Amino acid sequence: MTAPAPIKRHPAIVSFSKDHHFGLLLVWKIRQGLLKSIPAERISKYVLYFFKEDLSSHFKEEEELLFSRLAFDDALRKKAETDHVFIYSLIRDIENNPSDEVLLSLFANELEKHIRFEERDLFNHIQEVLGADELLEIAQRFSSSKHDIDEQWPDFFWDIKK
């Protein structure tokens, strides 16, 4: 059995896919922390930090630059927006209940499902629906100047060696 061919991304969407790598890394870090019985408060602090420094701006960029270009009643747009709303609510719940391991696990699962949906379905749909001019406009407006947010984070609870 051969592996499916990699999905060809338009340059306007590549930076969003690269961001998804870091989102999936967050999911892995949460799961590593939970597996290692790291106190949920430590994991929650990192999740909230990551959300503030990275994920919230990623969501906003997707909403403004991608979702808004689809028809308001587009089913995939609606699902993506609903996912974002749910993830925002999970972040508020983590802020209010930082010791809740079940909530952290739920957040990790939902974030992973959302990223997989965007990569497998939504981004392909966007590439099919939007014209070349719109995609070029997105590529020109979007500048990925991400930095390694972990440079400023002192608690590497997910580190296997620790």
Describe this entry's structure for a reader:
The chain has 162 residues and is mainly α. Helix content is 70%, strand content 0%. The chain is built from five helices and no strands. The longest helix is centred in the last third of the chain and has 29 residues, at 101-129. It is elongated.
Compile the SSE list and pairings.
Elements: H1 11-35, H2 40-66, H3 75-96, H4 101-129, H5 132-141
Helix pairs in contact: 1-2, 1-4, 2-3, 3-4
Considering the chains and any ligands shown, give keywords for the structure.
162 residues, mainly alpha, 5 helices, 70% helix
Enumerate how many helices there are, as a single number.
5
Q: How many beta-strand segments? A: 0
Secondary-structure element pattern, one letter each: HHHHH
* Helicity level: 55-70%
- Taking all Cα atoms into account, the compactness measure Rg is 17 Å
Count of domain modules:
1
Main β-sheet description: none
Write a brief structural summary.
The chain has 162 residues and is mostly helical.
